[in-house]
Specification:
The protein is an all-alpha fold. Helix content is 77%, strand content 0%. The termini are far apart.
Length: 106
């Protein structure tokens, strides 16, 4: 698998993690957040806004790179690792947020 393909897998995981946070937020809101994941995170504020801003570089890199199945030199191993590290850190934040809410509900 080339770097662009690995980057695509990480990016899809990042979208799914963000989707969990947005889904939870939408359950508590009268007015739903925007459908665009990154805009929704921006609107949520706090650590979610920070994540959206952190991910902006990766979103732009993905957009500029074109199709992930067409290997280009636009995405390197460093980009994949950095995106994966940021996504994993955000996953832990969202997990703690969700577990904290579940503990309060119990």
């Amino acid at each position: 698998m080339c770097a662009a393909e690995r980057f695509e897998h990480v990016h899809r995981a990042a979208l799914k993690v963000a989707g969990l946070a947005i889904e939870r937020a939408n359950a508590q809101r009268k007015r739903k957040l925007p459908l665009n994941v990154w805009k929704a995170l921006e609107r949520m504020g706090g650590k979610h806004r920070e994540r959206a801003r952190e991910a902006a570089r990766f979103v732009e890199l993905r957009r500029a790179a074109g199709n992930y199945w067409e290997p280009t030199g636009a995405i390197g191993e460093r980009d994949v690792l950095e995106h994966a590290e940021h996504t994993l850190a955000y996953l832990h934040e969202v997990k703690e947020e969700l577990l904290g809410l579940e503990a309060l509900a119990a």
